[in-house]
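Entry for the shared binder. Reason: the reviewer on the internal report wants the predicted structure included alongside the sequence.
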Amino acid sequence: MHYFSTNRVSPHVSFRDAVLNGQPDDKGLYFPSEIPRLDADFLDRLTDIPNEQIAFDVIRPYVDGDIPDDTLFEICSETVNFDFPLVPITDRISTLELFHGPTLAFKDVGARFMSRCLRHFSQDNKEKTIVIVATSGDTGGAVAAGFHGVQGIEVVILYPKGKVSKVQELQLTTLGGNVTTLELHGNFDDCQALAKHALADSELQSKVHLTSANSINVARWLPQQFYYFFGLKQWQGEPSVISVPSGNFGNLASGILAHISGLPVKKFIAACNANDVVTRFLATQNYEPHESVATLSNAMDVGAPSNFVRILEIFGNKFVDLKEKLESVSVSDDVTAQTMLDVYKETSYILDPHGAVGYRALADHLETNPDARGIFLETAHPVKFDSVREIIGTFGATPPSVEELYLRQKVSTEMDNHYDALREVLLNKI
């Protein structure tokens, strides 16, 4: 297995080099040279296969020998050593809860897998590896936890000041050690642009070994396929519609990749908030990124979603094929809040704002498709968002891991939106 750049200029590389490079020099994204097809027997036996074995079987063709099988299996076991329950909400709607990991968000899966891959690869490297990540909320906390204390790795996290929740900020800023957190005066798109600038800075790369921990990195992106298979393992009946709360579109891209590999899915829904560039693209065929807009579902506040190019790549840039499998809905903050309130009153289930966007998009689809049933991804624990308590009056029991966060001291540095400031921070890590 090799990986090529979606911009078609940079050379093909191995899995190892794709992980260590983070992003190709031509500023595209790495994409596998082929999409493996899983055996029908594997899918038929899914209910009898342990999650760690499913993860190993799914990811092994992508790694293609760059990590020994025994080590890869250990990595997979450590990555998915928590629950991924499929919970029925109504007779036609279920949710796949992805918030039972260390930082209570779906991004724990990709961050844990990548950190362990880098731990393995860094054994061969004499130089320190610096991992840079931009976050709109959950990514940074998952990366900080996944990489904290990993020898030979330094982590630099960029997040938009004042635009993440209190719990998210505490998860980002209270670890210290090999984790440096920068509060940027700007929005998530500014954070992402600075991170990409650093990765494309050839002079900087000649001095420091820099890689990305955003979902542009294949080691963050590819393992997100795992929980789609875990959901199918618990699903009964005809293939479902799957609604995915979508911001940077890595989660949805991994689900579609899993589908091409053999996962039976009737249709995907990209559930978006006011940042609706993909919703508008599917309606008009005009792809026009825009400045991100702040919403209740802040982790999805992305005006220029990096991973959508991977979805286009999966479908060979054929709009008709894409439109047949994917639809997109934009859900306003008012509708998001009302959905959270209605679902709680009717079912006692507590949605976080991102899950509420996914639920609403799915429920609307099912209204016009009476024979369909579906799953929406619940991507983060409601306790991470103060808006949940403000809207419905509670976010349920507070997990002990969150209570402990409030006892820690915040350690972060404010930074203006200038690349030179970030460059200086990175050079000081040598």
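Summary line for the report: The two ends are 32 Å apart (CA to CA).
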